[in-house]
Amino acid sequence: MNTGPTGLWTWTQRFTVASVGSFVGSLLALLGGANKVAVLIGVFGFVCPMVFGMAYLLLPSYVGKTLVDQRLAGIHFGLAYVGVSLLVADQFVTARILLRPLGVTLWTTGVLIFVGSLLATVGPAAVGTVAGTLGGSGRSQRSTRLATAMIPVAVCYLLVGTVALLMTVAPLGIGTVTVAQVTHYYLTGFATLLIYALGMRLLTAFFHVSLPRPVVWIVLVAGALAPAFLGTFLWIDPWFRVGGVFATLAMLGYAALVLFVILKTNRRRVGVSGIALGAIAGGTAVVSVVPVAFGFGDPISLAVHRTLILAGFFPLTIVGYAYLFFPITGGQFTGANPRAARVTIALLGAGVAVQSVGVALQYEPVRVIGILGSVIGAIGCGYLLGCRFVNG
């Protein structure tokens, strides 16, 4: 049985390419006016699978382990994308009684495989890390331990979001859980918290910069608390506002850490521009929605927030880290150079900026131009990463 890292790299690459393709699909859905489908593909086809793929590769290595069985990642890949396909198809067909429950069931099974395989691989070490977070010797070590301790917290939010997703399936008819709550658990609790936690370690590892400990702790603690309030008390004051404050502190703190790294390092890696633009998009997104949380905003602010998160923070951050892990210059193909990679990042950044302006002004031609820019940038990223995997 091959449980080495080579197989995991393969599945991480497949998750990456499929996720980029899903991002293109979500943008095309926006062009077609299918906003709900765009969000569905963005969350379940792009953001979560990309995080799954990177987590399979990174999390076991943090505790010196390899996944108990690499085939589990492949099974999860199939379940996730068949499940997403059924959920998307459910939005278009009339006789859809079984599509949504079946899609949710397949997705849930994949999540359980993901959690179970990681728990079997890193569980004992993770428990020891959490227990030793406050008792580590040295402040730097405690910050690293806290970042690692946030990983199981993020996985717990994934499980909570999956339970909430099951509760939205009509035959169950349990409670009043909404898809918006599921999205908050998945995006804010699972994906964003993992970006914070892994980012603390990856930024240090790639750029050899020691991060300011107080800011690290603010980002991680606030980032861990925010989803509990946002998902559980959606639009219920005052707790929803508390969650908004925590989310704002975490995202702005993360953006400050990224800026700190850029100013301190002499290493000009290609991916850093994507990470930086992603942090800017995330910071702008949380600031734009603060008035809404306190009852002073309008639906347009919320739409701008969604655009900046789904078309800015996540794709730019993910592509930035992907370019760090899979250097384009390591391949032998047309476009295997830093300039091509930077162009794709610039297109993604410009695309989300123009989209946001179009949404804010409620001027459709501008929004469409922004979406087209993002589509071209995403296709370029998919080409570079795909060729890198095949020819690298």
UniProtKB/TrEMBL annotation:
Specify whether ATP-binding is a keyword of the entry: no
Q: Keyword 4Fe-4S on this protein?
A: no
Listed InterPro entries: Cyt_c_oxase-like_su1_sf
Protein name (record): Uncharacterized protein
**This protein's UniProt keywords:** Membrane, Transmembrane, Transmembrane helix
Transmembrane annotation, as ranges: 12-31, 37-59, 79-99, 111-134, 146-172, 184-203, 215-236, 242-263, 275-296, 308-328, 340-363, 369-390
Per the UniProt record, the source organism is: Halorubrum salipaludis
